[in-house]
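MODEL INPUT / OUTPUT PAIR
PAIR INDEX: 1
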Amino acid sequence: MKTIIFKSASTYLLPLLVLFSVFILLRGHYLPGGGFVGGLIAAIAFVIHSFANGLEKTKSLIKFHPGFLMPVGLSIAILSGIAPMFIGESFMTGLWFEDPIPVIGMVGSALFFDTGVYLVVIGVTLTIIFTISETL
């Protein structure tokens, strides 16, 4: 299904869906959403683009293998859980900066954990879907 309408729409949907996924990621440590849902939305944006424009064109947009995001995201998530142990707190205790950051709000270890989950979900989802697409 590579119609001109689908190709044109996917060109505009990719940045909008990635931006929306970042919004869901940042919203998630206060309200429903977060890294998992945001990662799925970002992965869906790239899948839509690959269906419309071909797998090779989408891979050229990403510039690196999506599997690289898995260890990076996992490292960020683990470090956000271990960080409280350096100040005498237990594993996965929430730490928060004292002053809010404009637009984002209060930033704490939950946001870093969600960011790690976000990257892992994008990496796993795109690796699986791109691998299946290559074999078809």
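PAIR INDEX: 2
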Amino acid sequence: MSNSDYVSNIKTIPHPQLAVFEKLSDLTNLQAVKDRLSEPGAEERLKEMAREHNQEKLGEQFSQLKDKLDQLEFDRDSLTIGGTPLGNISLRIVERDEPKTIKFEGQGTPIPVTLWIQLLPLDSYTCKMRITLRAELNFFLRQMAGKHLQEGVEKMADILASLPY
């Protein structure tokens, strides 16, 4: 077994670094996003926004994600996905380095997982973000799941970069 890192492309977020950090470091803030995505017409609004930003793929992914939203639970320090074949899987915040880094560890995951959200200011009103996922995988798992983990990290970065901060 060895550690494999999956790193997102750097995303530019049109909001101050501290505002993004504060939103993402308290996971109860994501409950409001979940609630808004469940409102009538949310899917069409998101698809329109995705088209405006040339992110049609993100709009298409919303339909796939919508079913999973009902199985998400949040508290200040963790995000839990219920109803998986492995039971509940959580990402728990284990370190906050304001306003630069939020570090998560997987709980209930079939393999050891660590995730970092890194934020750097571009100016007073804009920051950039990168997500890194480190998973302990053997050669065969890396070959089978590596592409999917990389795609998942990119999707997560796209979604977080598009949130209203």
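PAIR 2 NOTE: Helices lie at 17-25, 29-37, 42-52, 56-69, 139-161.
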